[in-house]
Amino acid sequence: MLSSLSFPLFFLHNHSLKTKSSSESSKFAAALCEIAAGSPEPKHVQRFKCITIGDVGVGKPCLLLQFTDKKFQPEHYLTIGVEFGTRIINIDNKPTKLQIWDTAGQESFRSITIMYYRGAAAAILVYDITRRETFDHVTRWLKDAEKLAPANVTIMLTGNKCDLSDRRAVSYEEGERFAKEHGLIFLESSAKSAQNVDEIMVYL
């Protein structure tokens, strides 16, 4: 089980990632990873890298903010390139630093965001239960994760915005069935109400 402790939090907002080459993109990614590794933490802390993937507007930044800062921001900006947050929790009485990388869903940032699959222990694949097309695109995101992430990566399928059940376009059963067919963990969540936000990390 995971228990919340006080934690450091910082986001990398509005960084321009329109680099001219994959080499420059790699250098930028490496610089961000150094920043992440250098934040204050207890001694003997273990690290756990997680990435969020999915279409634009499914609520990935809001899930990140709710998990790390226990806040909901209804009018959240679009992620530009990547966004980063951390939270230190206890796993088996050991301090564990969760490093969550929120990748942009825009196709224009694809060449940059694919680099953040490297070294990921887990991936949270998010769709919006009120927008059918975001669920239809889950297969493409899953193929990316299976191709680009480590072979032992754990993948969680998350139907976000379950607080808007009156506007539901994807049933719970559809999400659950897709997850079972592809060997994924499945939960529905709400970044607004915080429903199952912490639980996502428990299962991972």
Rg over CA atoms, rounded to whole Å, is 16 Å
Gross morphology is globular
Main sheet: strand order: 1-3-4-2-5-6-7
Largest sheet: 7 strands, mixed
Low-confidence stretches: 1-22, 24-39
CATH topology: Rossmann fold
CATH architecture: 3-Layer(aba) Sandwich
Number of helical segments? 7
Instruction: Indicate the proportion of strand residues.
Output: 15-25%
Succession of helices and strands? EHEHEEHEHHEHEH
Q: Can you count the beta strands?
A: 7
- Estimated helix fraction: 25-40%
- Please report the distance between the alpha carbons of the first and last residues: 11 Å
CATH superfamily: P-loop containing nucleotide triphosphate hydrolases
How would you summarize this macromolecular structure in one to three sentences?
The protein has 204 residues and is of the alpha/beta class. It is 31% helix and 25% strand.
Main attributes of the structure:
7 helices, membrane, 31% helix, 25% strand, 204 residues, single chain, disordered N terminus, GTP binding, globular, Rossmann fold, alpha/beta, 7-stranded mixed β-sheet
Q: Could you please describe the fold and organization of this structure?
A:
By secondary structure, the chain is an alpha/beta fold. It has one domain (2-203): 3-Layer(aba) Sandwich (Rossmann fold), CATH 3.40.50.300. Helix content is 31%, strand content 25%. The chain contains 7 helices and 7 strands; from the N terminus they run E-H-E-H-E-E-H-E-H-H-E-H-E-H. The protein has helices at residues 22-37, 60-69, 110-113, 132-136, 138-148, 172-181, 197-203; strands at 2-4, 46-54, 82-91, 94-103, 122-128, 154-160, 185-188. Strand 6 (154-160), helix 6 and strand 7 form a beta-alpha-beta unit. The longest helix is centred in the first third of the chain and has 16 residues, at 22-37. Mean pLDDT is 75; it is low at 1-22 and 24-39.
